[in-house]
């Protein structure tokens, strides 16, 4: 008699091939999941800026080296970099905000106003690009810009407690400027509320399109849509966190905050709920494309009133008017 073979029967034929194929697919699926998790972590999370709360009380005078007014200018996506000179920015000579900050700086002596252009990475990586485009994610870029804005304002306030502030930003810079203004309006910002003369946001990605308490005042004919961060509220994927509307709006700064949005600019005039977060990849691609659409790049020629005043001209004149009427602190 022949001895019986022990152990499990050997798989062979089509069944064995299918078993091996299933194992390969399982391994590939696990590797894909691991890659996505690593990609998601590497892309970064949005980190709200952290800064010291302004101490109570102020002196009657401040140092003679302090400007009467500090203007904070925050460029948009691809219009700055982390190493740019905040007083002589050259990262992008075509930066839209130079059409605002340049005329303001030329209109006043340095003792009256100091113009600080926030240097930050100012990028928006396409998370589904293959191969990766090598840019910083929106979360990383926005977090750096917000923190640098808060740090600059906190440092100025510590040195110059009587200096007042004018804040303006474009695109990603408008989101950052609006977020900082919102925190100041809620008494959680780097400077006291009464020191902020005004805020203007050009193409704000968190624009609500609403009027009323807490909302910014709209300049020019208001388009019907909302900011992309509101249209895509809840989307959180690979370095892109859409944070929705600002809780409480601009609080105490609402009456001093202005918003400008050109019709059909998807950054600030996205159709409500049209960018569906449940349809992730097409929505993300549309959002990335929106940052480079022609309308978004034309605020230097977009007219906001019947006199033909462009968005950048309006913002520069607005800032100049605030600076002209700003207090003249005593210097020691």
TrEMBL record:
SUPFAM superfamilies assigned to the protein according to its UniProt record, in alphabetical order: alpha/beta-Hydrolases
Highest taxon in the source lineage: Bacteria
Signal peptide: none
Residue ranges of the region described as Disordered: 75-94, 206-225
UniProt keywords, alphabetically: Disulfide bond, Hydrolase, Membrane, Serine esterase, Transmembrane, Transmembrane helix
Similarity remark: Belongs to the cutinase family.
PANTHER family referenced in this protein's UniProt entry, alphabetically: CUTINASE 4, CUTINASE RV1984C-RELATED-RELATED
Protein name: Cutinase family protein
